[in-house]
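User: Here's a structure from my thesis project, written as structure tokens. My advisor, Dr. K., wants to see whether a designed sequence matches the one we expressed. Can you design one independently, without my sequence as a hint?
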């Protein structure tokens, strides 16, 4: 019987082609690649592609998204995986430190965690790396002068923006919402915080599933775009008062906090689809004076009771809802095959010296975007 990991690996046609090429060219021979990334079946396909290219891969997971089966599979196939599933930021910080203790020459970062820690304890031999997320790019852009090495930002690729963020994240969030709550979206009033590429996908997919969607966005231009795209754009407090479902996808901290409890309707569902588990201040909400019943929750959902009788449901403790909770499957294989093909090509460019320090915290080179796009279209056409 084919396991889910094997199914995903077989389905990653672009990565499989790159892996076959890397086996011949060995762009990472003698190089250690360190990463702290969501460890699940699609990242298994990416990390084994890098290993096929000669890399010694040392990996650890992110908060509340590491899947034990993926850890086991990677270890069985020669990848060093540090630690396992954890929700403890201190424990994960130790895992990241262990990755860097291996002095990797190339970093595949996710949220800026590795590069930030590298700057605290630099070592000789780092060639550069990649950053997967918008959140990480925002952190690392402020440190560009200190890093002074090539760092290619995958999320700034137009391919990543439309294929994964806009088209796939929204699908994955809807799938996770349905799986965890088993509630319909039809006619539900949904408020989406953030109208970047991921927010656009979340808003669109809820609307396509017959929800009534409003968007809260602090950027005036993006707010106008949401209006032109046909979404309601009420003021923040009004949006919260009317919402039956709230999804945060901003990359910022404290988007929804205990101070918002008086605004929230009875039976409201809160979920986060942003990278960091800090957009919804779950700890602060749990500790609020108005919260009189705060059980740990089960099956990816916790229901908090307020003194006035209202109930508030929080999905996956504020962690990425599409990569946490029961049987998480994340974004589609197709979109991640594309995004991780960009990753593999960008890491190849860093390892082989095709990009230099002038490419510090910059988007994917156009030549890589075009090559990946051509390959994808050719495969789609059969």
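Assistant: Designed independently from the structure alone:
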């Amino acid at each position: 019987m084919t396991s889910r990991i094997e199914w995903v690996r077989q389905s990653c046609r672009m990565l499989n082609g790159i892996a076959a090429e890397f086996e011949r060219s060995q762009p990472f021979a003698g190089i250690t690649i360190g990463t702290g990334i969501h460890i699940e079946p699609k990242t298994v396909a990416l990390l084994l592609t890098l290993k096929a290219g000669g890399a010694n891969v040392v990996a650890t997971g992110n908060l509340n998204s590491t899947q034990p089966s993926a850890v086991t599979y990677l270890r069985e196939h020669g990848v060093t995986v540090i630690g396992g599933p954890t929700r403890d930021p201190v424990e994960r910080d130790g895992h990241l430190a262990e990755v860097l203790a291996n002095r990797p020459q190339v970093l595949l970062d996710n949220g800026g965690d590795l590069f930030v820690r590298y700057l605290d304890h630099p070592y000789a031999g780092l060639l550069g790396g990649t950053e997967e997320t918008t959140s990480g790019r925002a952190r690392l852009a402020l440190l560009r002068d200190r890093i002074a090495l090539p760092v290619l930002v995958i999320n700034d690729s137009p391919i990543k923006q439309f294929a994964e963020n806009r088209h796939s994240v929204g699908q994955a969030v809807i799938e996770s919402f349905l799986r965890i709550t088993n509630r319909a979206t039809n006619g539900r009033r949904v408020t989406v915080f953030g109208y970047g590429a991921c927010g656009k996908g979340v808003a669109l997919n809820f609307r396509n599933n017959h929800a009534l969607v409003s968007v809260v966005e602090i950027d005036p231009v993006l707010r106008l775009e949401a209006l032109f795209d046909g979404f309601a754009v009420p003021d923040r407090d009004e949006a919260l008062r009317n919402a039956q479902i709230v999804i945060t996808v901003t990359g910022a901290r404290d988007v929804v906090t205990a101070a918002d409890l008086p605004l929230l309707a009875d039976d409201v569902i809160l979920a986060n689809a942003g990278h960091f588990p800090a957009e919804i201040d779950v700890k602060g909400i749990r500790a609020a004076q108005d919260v009189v019943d705060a059980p740990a929750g089960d099956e990816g959902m916790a229901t908090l009771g307020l003194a006035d009788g209202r109930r508030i449901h929080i999905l996956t403790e504020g962690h990425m809802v599409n990569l946490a909770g029961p049987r998480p499957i994340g974004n589609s294989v197709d979109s991640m095959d594309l995004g991780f093909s960009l990753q593999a090509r960008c890491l190849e460019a860093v390892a082989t010296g095709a990009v230099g320090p002038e490419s510090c915290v910059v988007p994917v080179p156009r030549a890589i975007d075009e090559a990946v796009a051509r390959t994808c279209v050719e495969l789609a056409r059969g």
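When you compare it with your expressed construct, this may help: The longest strand covers residues 301-306.
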